[in-house]
Amino acid sequence: MLLxxxxxxxAGGVREVTLDASNLREAIDGLAxxxxxxxxxxxxxxxxxxxxxxxxxxxxxxxLLGWEDAPLKEGDIVHVIPALxxx
Amino acid sequence: xxxxxxxxxxxKKGMYxxxxxxxxxKFEIDGPRWAPAPIHHATYxxxxxxxxxxxxxxxxxxxxxxSRDMGKTWTTSSNPKFPEGSDRTFSQTWxxxxxxQTTPNVIWAGTExxxxxKSEDRGESWSIVQSLDDQPTRAKWVPGFGxxxxxxxxIDAKDPKRMSVGISVGGVYTTTDGGMTWTQDNKKTGxxxxxxxxxxxxxKLLAHPEESGLRFMRVHEEVYWRDPSETTWRHSTAGxxxxxxxxxxMHPRDRRTAYVIPLDSMTxxxxxxxxxxxxxxxxxxxxVKLEKGLPxxxxxxxxxxxxHNDRLDPMGLYFGTANGDVWASRDEGESxxxxxxxxxxxxxxxxxxxx
Lengths: 87, 355
Description:
The complex is a heterodimer. Chain A is α+β, with helices and mostly antiparallel strands. Chain A has helices at residues 6-10, 24-34, 39-42; strands at residues 2-3, 53-57, 60-61, 78-82. Chain A has a single domain (2-82), classed as Ubiquitin-like (UB roll) (Roll), CATH 3.10.20. In chain A, a hairpin with a 2-residue loop joins strand 2 (53-57) and strand 3. In chain A, strands 1-4-2-3 form a four-stranded mixed β-sheet. Chain B has one helix and 29 strands. Chain B has one helix spanning 130-133, and strands spanning 4-11, 14-20, 27-33, 39-45, 50-55, 63-67, 75-76, 92-98, 107-112, 115-119, 127-128, 149-155, 163-168, 171-175, 183-184, 188-189, 202-207, 215-219, 223-226, 233-235, 244-250, 258-263, 277-280, 288-290, 307-309, 317-320, 326-329, 337-340, 346-354. In chain B, strand 14 and strand 15 (183-184) form a beta hairpin. Chain B is globular and about 55 Å long. Chain B starts with a strand and ends with a strand. The A-B interface holds A 5-7, 10, 37, 40-42, 44-46, 48, 50, 52-53, 82-83, 85 and B 57-61, 63, 76, 78-79, 81-82, 89-90.
């Protein structure tokens, strides 16, 4: 998983994390377990992913792949990105 | 021991720390921190020297940060959380208030959606005050223009179990048993309005830091005074150029003196009367404009947390504006000088008096 922007800061400067996951939900949960300071930055107290965040699997927007159900295979890169907030 | 003033300035794009010299004349500006996150409020706890900031960031959600080294480094707190079964989730923090002197580890936070949270570990973690959340009248709370938040936490000077909270728009609730039970506290004398709702739109509620039971309250329309012997809010707006405004302060020693910055209710700026800090020295019976050194007639704007005082003698008073200025008075409001400019839109000002 490749962290971008503020999410890198929330993880104490960590840029990338390698973990086993068969879908995006497992990957997010694995990321939060590996770096607990990220947990509340990724999900609210109901477990819902925060809205102003983009997730990509390689070059593809995860919203088009089933969001948290998006399947992952070995070698995929999941990008955790602060959503675009410019003009 | 000599005291210095450090002013915590929240803006719409990060927080700035203004570190003053011994004379409160020059301030070194440190920041911004957390930009572009908006900072609703930042505060200093004189009991142990901690600082707290409400970082209401879009990315990663809102959070509370705390510092134990005078703002050099900061740590993220565990978020305030609405309990399982609640129909709400934490959106942002509006105000952080250190607890009573006798409860050194207690910090309070007011949030949006409107709720009161308590920390018993110096802001490391937070729990909702369920007794306030369970008020049947909560169903009547509605958002103001800025959202529906609990923004005022007025802790009694002497009695640690006695405190009041102010909610926009939900009125005042008071507890006398440390938060186990609450009563609506919205009886007033004077201040008649054609609108039935404005008195419940609390803009700022303050407790005097030395006099038990003494309160001052800035409401959507009008301001109100309450002496220790009183149980109603007494209308105290005579002499102000408008009945609207947000910022308010109480003199930390003089039991008869308070300050407000009036705004026009439609434009939300000090027009056409111009920016000025208005002072009462007779418990709100009359108000006088203090504007020496301020830009005469300027239609500036100051928000709810935009004014605060230090604890020195003579008292210093500070306010921030929408155009990014911070103004300071070293003589209890008689004269003013700008101590910072070109900051982002200032949302909060807190003057820490540091030993």
